[in-house]
Amino acid sequence: MPAIKKANLPVDPTLPTPVPEPLVPLAPPVPAIPPQAMAPGDERTWSTLAHLSTLLNLVTGFGGPIAALIIYIVYKDRSRFVAYHALQAMVFQLIWWFGGGVLIGLMWAVVGALSAILVGIVLIPVAACITPILALMPVGALIYGIVGAVQVSQGQDFKYWLAGDWVRGTLTGV
Length: 174
What we know:
The protein has about 170 residues and is an all-alpha fold. The chain has helices spanning about 40-50, 55-60, 65-75, 80-115, 120-135, 135-155, 165-170. The longest helix is centred in the middle third of the chain and has 35 residues, at about 80-115. The model has no long low-confidence stretch (mean pLDDT about 80).
């Protein structure tokens, strides 16, 4: 590939020579105002609402985890207590509300696929018996969320089974 040569164009003496603009100093950065700490009563209130967000799932089908996530995002810098309970409520709802539906769907998909080789026809009664049990998962999550809300509103710490330890480890970085 041939090298490209710069053309030596004549400089027009009538044109002004460009002068670089002087650098303007930037204003000093404004120090960030740290978030204001929450009162213990407010912490209990927002933590209770995070646990009760599971009731939104009865009406919307999916609003509970979204409400808990919003509470987490808004209050995570102001209160570790609220952040812990909101994130814990969100994770627990995702696992139990949507996990039950996913398990039911997977089970019936496997039964449907195995019906092509006649094994699935034998599994239909088994799947029909397991479906109501898996459908009770959201009801258990609803009751467990209400228990958590009551305990937190009374000032006690509440930890969801399995999800609580994982969330605490995530928030503390351990």
